[in-house]
């Protein structure tokens, strides 16, 4: 067996254990009774250790050396590049740093759940200090290993091939037009009448409605499920993708669009190249590209006039006892495009969302690069919230820098993916429209032409291309913010 | 760390991986979409290999040698005995035999699913021949290792400490009175009027009813769930026990009693000693003792007049739109104690069930001991069915020797557990009644005194006692068939 084949076989073995981790994690988040949590957590920790041992097995170094001498096809070379990337990321950190960060992160995250409610910055800061410190050490080691700046080395974990120099350009562009656009849209929307949901929307009915919309979006129910969890997610494995939502019985619009979003993630997973299943080449390209698919479904497809027409029709069918004016196409469209300056990222609308992300990016970049201290964060946050959204978070940590889970366990470098995803999605749609009658497909309810384009340009590529090549081959140019701007202008003005 | 502690720590590691196997298996049987099956089976096979490697790790032999020299408490000695038993069972077979049997078993079982429908003995026999052959080899190796006869070495896998000499005595006893008792009861029941279910019994309502009965039986929903699967089972782990049932909407009596049965299994698991969790000493004593708990719930408690009164009341509440005479106490009692000579073990009633088991026991014992050939089985089956239940299975393989899954993959030695369970259950009830007002507890609906007895005499013992000691300490004597006979006489005559 060639060294390359040995690496692939080993990767599939690791993937089998990751499969079990994904299913046990899904179970824990959806159906596990609370009393099962401790034993489950121990079992999953044991599995993590085993997976880490496999991923850093001593024979891998030699196999990589040999494989690089072997004659490989272009695809195999790409697969080898991704295998090596994963291996280097797993091996570059010393074990004691990995453990220390994991411990500090768990402790900080656990305490944060209460500290956030209590607006307790002092308590949080005491734990977070260590998380930041260890993350800086991690960034330093990763930076030395691959010759990047410290923040870029962290960014590389989520967005391989992207760096802060490119992000600075993209986000600087956005900052020139976003704040004034937000003001203009809010002003314009202030005169619109809006019917808000009242009464009860049964969860079972919401689920039925959601599943019909998933069918419209051609979710493959032979290879996936819809369930409930406190925090919606897309999990499982490509042959069995598990998406979740949460239902609020006082309205249906949130869970419905949440299901559309997760369906986008799910179809990417379901559409990944089977030939490379169980290896990194058969996985999603990056967090940003993953988010581009969920946001393509949510923002580009489902918030279009034509698709909202479908949602209106289906909602009226399922909620026939409710006021139909709530579910008119016009009213649903207004509900789904309402813009509001507010504190909380996860509740933000399409237009203000990038402001939340750019603020976090600027702060975490300075923090990881060692240009600011973690104690500087609240004031910086306040300044930037004032500048981008005109809101003060002074002494309001809970709705300020303590609102997100990401920083509590040191996932620095993740936030840009959200806005990169929105930008990619807009650029993909613009490219798709050159060859596909997108509006006609949505109007007809037969969306295959859209999915065929995504499948051949994005899903089927897995990680066989680097991100820049993926985007260039799909759209003819590198990522730039102009399509995103154009999309927002035409939707909101 | 002492060698004993090392063994315990290693066992808990293995147990963590078994936890993941249990949950993935539950998922596969209950919620997994069909398209996920291949990747899941591969992941679970990988996990099995890993578990087997851990259980046969080379350092264990030395640890066992050392541990046997260490000063251990009585409980620790018992725990060490069970650890060693498990280790020996895992290590005694050569790898190639394990793999060959697993392969032949999978092939035979897979083909059997269709062959049984087709009544295709020739086709089945061709595959089964190899399964029997490999099982005989397995029995031979196990017999040499522990000085038992071949069949007893297989029996030991499911019923440690039991042997065919004792089973011969127990079953010979049963055979003296069971056939005539069956005839007498059938004759007596022929004049009884019976209201059969008609109309539709919605699965959601059946589930609600089932969950209320589980509450009456004090199932701990903080540490377990009820779900649906094609073949009902009790799975999961002691901190998170997953029971399943299947619903037939044309009636409710089967699923309801099925839920009671699995709840018995579940409460045993939930009640196992936490101090030994993750080691064999903290596991169920044997398959027969496990079945004794499910049958205690199903046959001893739930088919009592008083408990059927509760079932009648709850059924009438949930199925208020149905004919109440169906759900009268008397009618439910008649439905739940109807005796009928028939071909299929899994559909058999309490009274004819032992005949099905004894028949299988006698055949598999002769087969594994090499006294008969596998091609002799159909004729032997027919002879014994004629003798015990007056039915011919000539040329009727599908309802004869091809009806069970157990033999298809070589699980020889398992069948006796069913009837041992029924006998243990009867003996436990007789003993319990000496100190507990069982009828009063059931009548009142507050069943704690019953569960307290089971908990302290059975559940909390795990595998810390051998089976004989467990039964003697709980009931004052060794297992014998008289309590079972007495129970059947007083219920059915
Ligand atoms: Zn997303
Ligand atoms: Zn059972």
From TrEMBL, chains A, B:
It catalyses: Release of a C-terminal amino acid with broad specificity, except for -Pro. It comes from the Bacteria. GO terms for molecular function: carboxypeptidase activity. Pfam families: Peptidase_M32. The keyword Calcium does not apply. Keywords: Carboxypeptidase, Hydrolase, Metal-binding, Metalloprotease, Protease. Transmembrane segments: none annotated. PROSITE patterns: PEPTIDASE_M32 (PS52034). Its EC number is 3.4.17.19. Broad specificity carboxypetidase that releases amino acids sequentially from the C-terminus, including neutral, aromatic, polar and basic residues. PANTHER family: CARBOXYPEPTIDASE 1, METAL-DEPENDENT CARBOXYPEPTIDASE. Belongs to the peptidase M32 family. This is Metal-dependent carboxypeptidase.
